[in-house]
Amino acid sequence: MAIKPLLIPAFDPAANAFNFAPLAKLGQYGKPDDKLGSLATQYASAPPAPPSGGSNYANAIAGIESGGKYDLLGPTTKAGDRAYGKYQVMGANIPEWTQAALGTSMTPEQFLADPNAQDAVFNHRFGQYVDKYGPTGAAKAWFAGEGGMNNPNAKDQLGTSVDDYARRFNAGLGGQ
After folding, report:
1. Are residue 68 and residue 33 in the same domain, yes or no?
2. Are residues 67 and 142 in the same domain?
């Protein structure tokens, strides 16, 4: 459900720019008759739906990245960053990607402790990549970033190349 604007004509136009997206998370925890949960449902957007092909994509990426472990920390890179969680999101991406997917920015530590946030960020970002590049291209972008996805021989610090990653992703989908 899209965010419905709350228009307050008697006030400054800046008052109409309130972001109700964080309420979406509250709606997940409320009871059906809970007033706050119903307010969240009324005004907030729902958590991002899995991309078409959904849980198959998530399972294929998680199988490559973490074996499905939400609490996994990747090795520290030469640049000093590391990957976090089930889908191994790079720490430098977490504040921006959580803001885009959830309406609130998280630290890498908060992200690591929140499986729902990890799934929502994956669904949001990977879904964008699928829309833009198709499933195999999305896997390449997930692995190497949009700037590195077209370099088939580029490798990460573990020796996996972009093409190797795409092959493993497709094998995880059952050869799709």
Report:
1. no
2. yes
Same domain flag for 65 and 38: no
Residue 23, helix vs strand vs coil: helix
Domain count, the chain: 2
Structural domain for 4, as ranges: 1-46
Q: What is the sign, positive or negative, of the torsion defined by CA atoms of 64, 130, 93, 24?
A: negative
pLDDT tens for the chain, 176 residues: list them.
455 444 444 444 444 444 444 444 444 444 444 444 444 444 444 444 455 555 799 999 999 999 999 999 999 999 999 999 999 999 999 999 999 999 999 999 999 999 999 999 999 999 999 999 999 999 999 999 999 999 999 998 889 999 999 999 999 998 54
Phi and psi torsions of 90, nearest 5°: -65, 140
Q: Is residue 120 located within the same domain as residue 146?
A: yes
- Dist CA 115 CA 147 (whole Å): 28
pTM of the model: 0.69
